[in-house]
Specification:
By secondary structure, this protein is an alpha+beta fold. The chain has one domain. Helix content is 23%, strand content 43%. The chain contains two helices and five strands, in the order E-E-E-E-E-H-H. Strand 2 and strand 3 form a beta hairpin.
């Protein structure tokens, strides 16, 4: 697995008459600007979607689902070190 990086991310609104207005999460590293993700509205119902690129292909996830995942992660996501300290060490095999 490739090591993750945590560059500074900026949120910037982008808009054109032909594409509407959307929000980009943007960063720069290795001397290049890069779009990390885009939040956009559906043409038919204005529902909001988070768009990321997976293997060179744009993938859209409902923003409501992303919000729910973020909310539930506050209590459900932990590091391996947290499990080592709080679970494994209290339940010896």
């Amino acid at each position: 697995m490739t090591k993750s990086i945590r560059p500074k991310i900026k949120a910037q609104y982008v808009g054109t008459p032909a594409n509407g207005r959307y929000l980009e999460l943007y960063t720069e590293f290795d001397g290049m600007g890069r779009i990390v993700a885009t939040i956009l509205a559906d043409e038919l119902d204005e529902s909001l979607w988070l768009e990321v690129e997976v293997n060179g292909r744009p993938v859209q996830v409902p923003l409501d689902l992303v919000k729910k995942a973020i909310e539930s992660s506050a209590t459900g996501v932990h590091s391996e070190q947290w499990y080592e300290k709080n679970v494994y060490s209290k339940n010896p095999a």
